[in-house]
Amino acid sequence: MPDNAQTQAQTQKEQPRRRQARGERRITQLLEAAARVFCTTGYTAASTNAIAREAGVSPGTLYQFFPNKEAIAIELGDRLVHEMRETYGEALAPIDPATPLEEAVGSAIDRFMAFNTEHPVFFALMHGPDIPGRMAETHDQLYTTLTGRIEGLLGSLMPGAGQADVTRTAHVCLGIYKAGLELVLAHEGAERAAYVQEVKDVLMRYLEPLVGDRLGRG
Known about the structure:
Elements: H1 2-41, H2 48-55, H3 59-63, H4 69-91, H5 101-118, H6 120-126, H7 133-157, H8 163-185, H9 189-211
């Protein structure tokens, strides 16, 4: 009897964990479906019915986890922003002064482009004209943080420049990247790779006169 009671207690403990695991899998399934729908139709035209259909579930099942499409977009955006923060943390880490500028720029661009091409919905949600208010706030915070990281990086490469010049340069770099990203996402395969290289080349031509020989002197 004690063995049976112990087994029953163990089973009761495992059931909530199994339900939680199934719930997490269902949420992931719904978020992946939403990402495809948002990329195809945009946020405004998307509907919970379309997302449920894409996920292969009933609308009722979707509503067990999300009350509306805004909640889905916010959850999806939060997860992507968390991953994006890790990406730019790696991409904008301090640079060894012996690193050639071309290598430093190329490495950062490759990381950012890889993230955005792997998650095209990030661009669709964060740069669309109709994103939910909370996501717009998240995007603004992300942009501010990202600009600050670029300013910190440029500050070490442009020690004689004033803060206004460094800030302006950071905004221009980010603007060049965002404009290039839109072109990159609109193409596939070899043509996409060619556009990525174009973005690197533009940034290099912009930064070289400003940075001079401060990188790559090792």
